[in-house]
Design goal:
Blueprint (H helix, E strand, L loop, with lengths): L2 E4 L2 E8 L3 E6 L17 H5 L3 E6 L18 H15 L5 E6 L2 H11 L4 E7 L11 H9 L1 H7 L5 H12 L10 H5 L5 E4 L8 H10 L3 E3 L8 H18 L18 E2 L1
Parallel strand pairs: 3-4, 3-5, 5-6, 6-7, 7-8
Antiparallel strand pairs: 1-2, 2-4, 8-9
Helix pairs in contact: 2-3, 4-6
Length: 264
């Protein structure tokens, strides 16, 4: 199993396929790992025939093999530094990215920290803030992430976890890591696959799509049947092909990516 290590951070990652790099951030919140067994579809399996697919265990994800300290000063940027460090370790400069769930705020933070390196992004089931549910992400992670971490890491206390989550999720809005002005000024092509659960509010996703000048949105709902999932995957495939750099594969024109597309 391949690992990337920098200081006291050790990141487990996996690669599959070849071609232009596609960085895949799977869902599960802070339990995001190299695979997504409960996800709507297996992105690596779907796209490894066309792309060099790269995924990783988020630092300290339950069930994963990536480890590191809790960064109490800037947790979002710590995760982004892990991701950029891995990509640099693998010799990846520019790349496509697809994120599920927590992948949404992590993609936006990558855009902020590494401007120009993301060629295009796909945001599936994007996490965002529902103003009607203040404190949701703290409560959710105390229930679904903290117990496993505390059981496996005797150097971490409940007080440390609470401090960490308060720093990461205690004062968040919109897409958690960037402002509406940042999204409004982002020229990167973007495709969103909306959801509508507390962690992935539909209204926040649609606000993101309306603000981003080069955004598209796929059909909704799309996870309710195998047929609709297949249509959404087809849309993602067309979008990625349309936006990958010339010379990295059979490039489609943007007009050819219009299957199921709604430009907002």
């Amino acid at each position: 199993m391949p690992f990337y290590q920098k200081g006291d951070v050790r990141i487990h990652y996996e690669e599959a396929g070849s071609g232009f790099p596609l960085f895949i951030i799977y869902g599960g919140g802070l339990n995001s790992r190299v695979s997504y067994p409960n996800g709507p579809f297996d992105a690596v399996a779907e796209f490894k025939s066309e792309y060099r697919c790269i995924s990783m265990d988020l630092r300290n994800a339950n069930g994963g093999q990536s480890t590191g300290p809790l960064d109490f000063d800037d947790p979002w940027n710590a995760h982004t530094a892990d991701q950029l460090g891995l990509l640099e370790h693998l010799g990846v400069d520019r790349f496509l990215v697809m994120g599920f769930c927590i992948g949404n705020p992590l993609i936006w933070n990558l855009m902020k920290r590494a401007p120009g390196r993301i060629v295009a992004s796909v945001h599936a089931q994007p996490s965002g803030v529902d103003p009607k549910l203040p404190g949701f992400f703290i409560r959710n992670n105390l229930e679904k992430w903290a117990p496993g971490l505390l059981a496996s890491r005797k150097d971490i206390t409940k007080e440390m976890v609470e401090r960490y989550l308060a720093r990461m999720y205690g004062d968040v809005d919109f897409v958690l890591t960037v402002t509406r002005d940042f999204v409004r000024n982002c020229q990167t092509p973007l495709l969103a696959l909306p959801d509508d659960v507390p962690a992935h509010p539909y209204a926040t996703c649609m606000e993101m799509v309306r603000l981003a000048p080069n955004a598209q949105v796929s059909l909704y709902p799309w996870k309710d049947s195998k047929e609709n999932i297949a249509l959404a995957v087809r849309h993602v495939r067309s979008f990625l092909r349309a936006n990958r750099p010339a010379g990295s594969g059979d490039l489609l024109t943007r007009g050819q990516a219009g299957v199921l597309t709604t430009t907002v």
